[in-house]
Specification:
- The protein is mainly α and 131 residues long.
- Helix content is 66%, strand content 11%.
- A 3-stranded antiparallel β-sheet has the order 1-2-3.
- Strand 1 and strand 2 form a beta hairpin.
- Helix 1 runs antiparallel to helix 2 and helix 2 packs antiparallel against helix 3.
Length: 131
């Protein structure tokens, strides 16, 4: 076997190992993200929303005083709590991506960017209000 062929085989093996490592890290990332709780509360804590790693609502809780609020107010507070839960999810993604994907910084950047793009722009306004 000539040197060119040997070098090509070694490079293919290296690429295979890198892809396998990235796949394992991605799977661990997804499992860690799913295992975390992403929770948001309304500003005066009348409503609590928990979202999954997909950003979809998994649970909504209301305080005992919440039923006395108008439906429009409850709707607004639920959206606010959901937005805060999405911020918690995005922060978790950023934290995990920075540490859980060490062999692939490009994948880490891509994962964070993907979640950032999926968060509605109104949530960014909320983040600015929280500062």
């Amino acid at each position: 076997m000539d040197d060119g062929m040997l070098a090509a085989r070694q490079r293919l093996e290296q690429l295979r190992q890198e892809a396998h490592r990235a796949a394992q890290e991605s799977q661990a990332f997804a499992q860690n993200l799913e295992a975390r709780e992403h929770v948001g509360w309304s500003s005066r804590r009348e409503v609590r929303v928990r979202v999954g790693s997909d950003g979809l609502i998994r649970d909504v809780e209301f305080t005992p005083s919440a039923p006395s609020l108008s439906p429009a107010t409850l709707s607004r507070l639920t959206m606010e709590a959901h937005d805060r839960a999405l911020l918690a999810l995005r922060d978790a993604v950023d934290e995990l991506a920075a540490h859980a994907l060490p062999s692939s910084p490009e994948l880490s950047t891509l994962m964070s960017a993907s979640y950032h793009q999926s968060i509605p722009s109104r949530v960014e306004v909320l983040r600015d209000d929280l500062r």
